[in-house]
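Data deposition worksheet. Section B asks for the primary sequence of the deposited chain exactly as it was used as input, without tags or linkers unless they were present during the calculation. Section C holds the resulting structure in token form. Section D is free text for depositor observations; keep each observation to a single sentence. Incomplete worksheets are returned to the depositor.
Section A, Depositor: J.P.
Section B:
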Amino acid sequence: MARFLIVGGGERASALTDALERDGHVARVASRPDRDALEHVAIVCWLSEESPERFLLGAIDSSMRGFVYQADGWAEAVLETARRNAIPVAILGADDDLEAWLAEAQGVIASLIEGSGQSASKRYAEPYSQKLIGFRPSEKGPTMTLRLGDLAPDFEADTTEGRISFHDWIGDSWAVLFSHPKDFTPVCTTELGYMAAAKPQFDSRGVKIIGLSVDPLDRHEEWAKDIEDTQGAAPNYPIISDADFNVSKLYGMLPANVDGDPLARTPADNQTVRNVFVIGPDKRVKLILVYPMTTGRNFDEVLRVVDSLQLTAEHSVSTPVNWQPGENVIIAGSVSNEQARELYPDGWEEPRPYIRIVPQPS
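Section C:
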């Protein structure tokens, strides 16, 4: 089931809403993209009076998957805005035949649901067809956008410890997912070994760790031997085999149109698969770090951030620059002075009214 926001109105919007609901999807009609649409995976848009820039950027803010747009006077501007912001977009012909138009729209929508980022429609209104064909995404094209606070995409995948369903695997724990462009890469080898040695520190905080690499499972097993030989510890946590690029696409690390043999790709081809995601028990993304291939990750910093995230999830405080566990914290701005006096009867240090410093709550 996918969720749609249909922007516009009239007979075609109603017909498309009915068709989507018959297919088991959820659809609603609105006058414009809005912040309540955060979980919608696609948007169908008709515009004739408003700036497309405004609507398209509204879709970016709402993490939309892409646009289906009926050809009109704004089509040129829609395409240009989509190109600049790497949003998959299709221009539908303004066909008078409702049934034919609906079939065309459903084909395009199907491609968006599948995450291909490409239009399935061939029947575009002139003069827009050549411009749309020129926009077909390359490997440097559209990716899904994942932001802090978003629901971490769920998936099923094979790992070195068996097949998992990601959200079920997390359970009520915190999780750290860290990704790698290829097996047998030197910096990643040091990182995987370090995480094996650091695993007890994550365990003590109720944090599960899981790696990912864009290679087949049998190569992971061979790589683990090298990691143990060179780093002194073999991975003692699961490593996802993302040979079909599915997880990398879901998490915005690779463009939606990447496909083919993972063994034919070089580390440089996958260099954007160098992320760290911290995910909370609510399955929401709490931290995203992205590293270049030439710089090893600082997992001590990840532990520090986990300590801060867990503390601030339990208490209405924030942690200041370079904070370490046990050091002073800042009372959250959402806490009034009246509430703060109840929480901290001994008072606080206040160099400015908006900076209220107290000892770390136990």
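Section D:
The first strand starts at residue 3 and ends at 7.
The CA atoms of residues 30 and 263 lie 45 Å apart.
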